[in-house]
Amino acid sequence: MSPRRQLLVLQARLRRLSANNRAVAAVEFALILPFILMLYMGSIEVTQVIVADRKLASVTSSLGDLVARANGEVSEAAVNDFFSASSLIMRPYPTEGLMQVVTSVSVDADGDTNVEWSRAFNGATAKSVDTSYDLPEEITDIAANSFVIVSEAQLNYTPWGGYFFDSSFNLYKQYFHMPRYGEAIEVIE
Q1: Beta strand pairing status for 169-177 and 146-157?
Q2: What is the value of pTM for the model shown?
C-alpha cells in the first residue's frame, strides 16, 4: 500500500473514531466520580461537626439555665442531675469526653468578680473558690452588684469516617446566665 493510501485510511479511521461517542458519558462519569464522592463524604463530615457543635451549645445553655432557675439554693444532687440530663442532649454523639463546669460568680459595683462556688463533671476542673473570674466587660456591666451563672462544656469530637478530616476537633462553649430571682444561688449538700 502506498503511503498516500495509508494516510487516507488513517484519516478515515480517525473520522470514524471521532464520530463514535457511545461511551463518552461513562468515561466522563468515571473521571469525575472520585471528586463527587470526596465532596459528598466531606460534606457529611462537615455537617456532623456542625451538628455536634450545635448540640454542645444546647448542652451548655441548658446546664446554665437549669442552675439559674433555682430560687436561692440548689442541691448537690440536683446539680449532678443537671449534668447528666444535659449529657442526654448530645445523643447520638458520644459523651465519654463531654466535660462540663458550672460556676457562680459574684460581680461588685466596680466589675470585680469572685467565684462563689464551682462544680465540675466528667473530668473537668472546677474553678477555685474566692478567685477572680475573667468575664467579658459586657457581662460585668450587666451584672454589677449581682451574680452570674457561667456554664462551660468541652468535647473532643472525632469525625466518624475520617475521610475528610483526619484529626479531632476540640469543641468548647461558654454561656452566661443571670439568676432568675436576682439573688445568690447556693449549692447545698
Answers
A1: antiparallel
A2: 0.78
Residue in the structure block whose three cell numbers are 459574684: 106
3-class secondary structure, 49: helix
Give the side-chain half-sphere CA count within 13 A for 65. Answer: 8
What is the end-to-end Cα distance of the chain in Å, rounded?
A: 105
Cα distance between residue 48 and residue 46, in whole Å: 5
Question: Distance from CA of residue 87 to its chain's centroid?
Answer: 14
User: Tell me: the pLDDT tens digits for 15-59?
Assistant: 876 776 777 777 888 889 999 988 888 888 888 889 999 999 999
What count of other Cβ atoms lies within 10 Å of the Cβ of residue 13?
A: 10
Are the C-beta atoms of 115 and 104 separated by less than 8 Å?
A: yes
